[in-house]
Amino acid sequence: MRNLLLSSLLFSLIFSCSPKLYKDLKNDSERTETLVPVFNEQVSSYLYKAKIDILTHYLSGLLFIKPIGKDTFRLVFTNELGVKFFDVEYFPNGSKVHYAMEKLDRKVVMNTLEKDIKLFLMTDFSLQEGERLTDENKEKKIFKFKEKKDFYYYFLNRENQITRIENTSKSKVKIEVDLKDYKNGIPYFINIKHNSFKFNIELNYLER
Amino acid sequence: MHNFIKTYIVILGLVISGFSYGQSPYKPMKDTASFKKSMAEVAKKTRTLKSDFVQEKNLSVLSEKIISKGKFYFKKDNLLRWEYSEPFQYLIVLNGESVLIKDGQKVSKYDVQSNKLFKEINDMMVGMIQGKILSNKMFDIAFLENEKYFIIQSQPLQKNKKEFLQDIFLFFDKKDLGVEKINITEPSGDYTEIIFTNRQTNTEIPDAEFIVK
């Protein structure tokens, strides 16, 4: 009996220690703006200098993003000298690997990459179905999506540009993306950070 | 991940050396012996090389190009500086026993001897300077020409290189036997072209250019 008490106490303690994320946010029915994806067909292509820290490795190169139709993008990642790491087409609920260097061509690598990239390609949601949320003071503009056990939050600034993306479980943020320094609708700085292991991608826009 | 760096270094090595083979739109070279002899003489006389370069990465399927620009320095026996300045900053220096890469503020250093591939490149470079550039086991080589250029076409023999590398074409200006253009083709049809302009031979290049801070 004592054990049961103790364990139930412990259980409730643990439970109360993992608060639900953003439980203070509430529905915002007054807002009418639409969620515009970070990348779109208005721009013919995007080029970023990419720095990737993964576990003990560091990798750098150029990330080329080309919208090739509605909700479809081709991403090519090369090193500075032009040697290709991967060339992948992303579309709603799928992708096609046109090329991946042998070392990268593993399911776990390509799937993690796809998940990260799709956070800002936003091809897998119906954007109209996002839940509009705000805080107590109605200062924040947030869109929330749910997919299986995961939640996706998109934070907008006053110009309705996406400045932060979070992929969360019920209680913690798993992947966070910061987008800054918008010029002509293009974020010049993007940082993607995983909280479960060391995997960080920094993208800096290259003007051509 | 070091292999990626090795890959670029191999290609860089080829920039200043030269090897190959294959089929191509060019005619076979008429007088290979005399070309090799002249090359050896040029190599012997060359103490330093300095040039601007434009690198064009052609993504064939997307009809898109990624263009970058920079400077190239070489000093006998084994000092090399390959520096991008547009639209990003990225520097690779081969300095005798070490390879240094500066990416923004981040400097990484690799030891040539501790790494088989870096050693191969190093040996290749020294070989080139000594005029023995055309004896290499990593590539199959063909000698070609057209009106303007002598061309060396190289195809990798190793499986791990064939994966991303189809040919390397080195274009030597017939007038002075300097490398004016390099074309690196991939099995996918994408290719990278590097064009050298403002080529200068035997100008003074201070050793400080081959130190990375």
Task: Note the main attributes of this structure.
heterodimer, A: 208 residues, mainly beta, 13-stranded antiparallel sheet, 2 helices, 13 strands, B: 213 residues, alpha+beta, outer membrane lipoprotein receptor (LolB), chain A, 4 helices, 12 strands, 22% helix, 43% strand, globular
The string of secondary-structure elements of chain B, in order, is HEHEEEEEEHEEHEEE
The whole-angstrom Rg of chain B is 16 Å
Largest sheet of chain B: 12 strands, antiparallel
Quickly count the helices of chain B: 4
The chain-level structural class of chain A is mainly beta
Give the SSE layout.
The complex is a heterodimer of chains A (about 210) and B (about 210).
Chain A: H1 2-17, E1 26-27, E2 46-54, E3 57-67, E4 73-78, E5 84-91, E6 94-100, H2 107-121, E7 131-134, E8 141-147, E9 150-156, E10 162-168, E11 173-183, E12 186-194, E13 199-205
Antiparallel strand pairs in A: 1-7, 2-3, 2-13, 3-4, 4-5, 5-6, 7-8, 8-9, 9-10, 10-11, 11-12, 12-13
Chain B: H1 2-16, E1 27-28, H2 32-45, E2 48-59, E3 64-75, E4 79-86, E5 90-95, E6 98-103, E7 106-111, H3 116-129, E8 139-145, E9 149-156, H4 159-162, E10 167-173, E11 179-185, E12 191-201
Antiparallel strand pairs in B: 1-8, 2-3, 2-12, 3-4, 4-5, 5-6, 6-7, 8-9, 9-10, 10-11, 11-12
How would you portray this structure in words?
The complex is a heterodimer of chains A (208) and B (213). Chain A has 208 residues and is mainly β. Chain A contains two helices and 13 strands. Chain A has helices spanning 2-17, 107-121; strands spanning 26-27, 46-54, 57-67, 73-78, 84-91, 94-100, 131-134, 141-147, 150-156, 162-168, 173-183, 186-194, 199-205. In chain A, strands 1-7-8-9-10-11-12-13-2-3-4-5-6 form a 13-stranded antiparallel beta sheet, with helices on one face. In chain A, a hairpin with a 6-residue loop joins strand 7 (131-134) and strand 8 (141-147). The longest helix of chain A has 16 residues, at 2-17. Chain A is globular and about 50 Å long. The model of chain A has no long low-confidence stretch (mean pLDDT 88). Chain B contains four helices and twelve strands. In chain B, a hairpin with a 3-residue loop joins strand 8 and strand 9. Residues 16-23 and 129-133 of chain B have low confidence and may be disordered. Chain B has a twelve-stranded antiparallel beta sheet. Chain B has helices at residues 2-16, 32-45, 116-129, 159-162; strands spanning 27-28, 48-59, 64-75, 79-86, 90-95, 98-103, 106-111, 139-145, 149-156, 167-173, 179-185, 191-201. The chains are: A mainly beta (208), B alpha+beta (213).
